[in-house]
Amino acid sequence: MNDKNEESIDFGYQKVARNQKKNLVADVFQSVAAKYDVMNDLMSFGIHRLWKRYTIDCSGVRRGMKVLDIAGGTGDLTAQFSRRVGAEGEVVLADINDAMLKVGRDKLRDRGIIGNVRYVQADAEELPFDDNTFDVITIAFGLRNVTDKDKALRSMLRVLKPGGRVLILEFSKPVSATLNQVYDFYSFNILPKMGQVVANDSDSYQYLAESIRMHPDQETLKSMMEAAGYEKVDYQNMTGGVVALHRGYKF
Ligand SMILES: C[S@@+](CC[C@H](N)C(=O)[O-])C[C@H]1O[C@@H](n2cnc3c(N)ncnc32)[C@H](O)[C@@H]1O
């Protein structure tokens, strides 16, 4: 019998049993949650804010809409969606990790973002929502960490309303060889040291660099989305392909 859980799967460059990956990923985000935002700003020189703003601009979000920000973590996208959907709309910030959710919830409440945001602990692979619930779904820097990405893509499509769109913001493959070299040097020599100094945790940032290299490239992810049933799938590279924004629709 072919038991899926006995197959091995990548956790960064390591091969681990399929049913171990969730716990290992949980350990990473449990460990980095408190320093997650400050590390994001440092590591990306603040550029992650532009990637996220562009994602919102491409989402087509309007007042009154219902949005799911899955793997939403500390809530950067949720905060912007909350303003755009207004009091008649709703944003669900969902994440598998309670520590990340707590940091997100505290941050948004401190900023006065309340009333139209709901917090749900959920796994992207098995979303606990009815079919055809959301107008817009985002997953930013989250899909890379999911064990069964195809299952997560199908789960997101199921809860998306007809006419709605899913946006996947994720690290991808730089388009130029030179940029790739610089990026590799930065990721493997500088990032883990930064993680050690700021978050007292170099392993999690080593995992970050490795998991990015193991993630499907632009065209592969596009094919995976099409295979899952998304229509009119496209993507746009940002920062030379360091990051890509994939978009797919349900009609
Ligand atoms: C790198 S953070 C991204 C947070 C936020 N979206 C952002 O862009 O700043 C990745 C998040 O994915 C969450 N995550 C990992 N696996 C998940 C899964 N299977 N389902 C839902 N969330 C998951 C982690 O807990 C973490 O909060």
> Biggest β-sheet, characterized?
7 strands, mixed
Principal-axis shape: globular
List the ions, cofactors and other small molecules found in this model.
Answer: S-adenosylmethionine
- Amount of beta strand: 15-25%
Report the CATH topology name. Answer: Rossmann fold
Oligomer: single chain
Uncertain segments are: none
Task: Specify the CATH architecture.
Answer: 3-Layer(aba) Sandwich
Q: Whole-Å distance between the termini?
A: 37 Å
With helices defined by DSSP (H or I, 4 residues minimum), what is the helix count? 9
Strand order of the largest sheet: 5-4-3-6-7-9-8
Q: Mean of the pLDDT scores?
A: 95
Q: How many strand segments?
A: 9
By secondary-structure content and strand pairing, the structural class works out as alpha/beta
Please trace the helix and strand order, writing H or E for each element: EEHHHEHEHEEHEHHHEE
CATH level-1 class: Alpha Beta
In total, the number of domains comes to 1
Q: What's the alpha carbon Rg, rounded to whole Å?
A: 17 Å
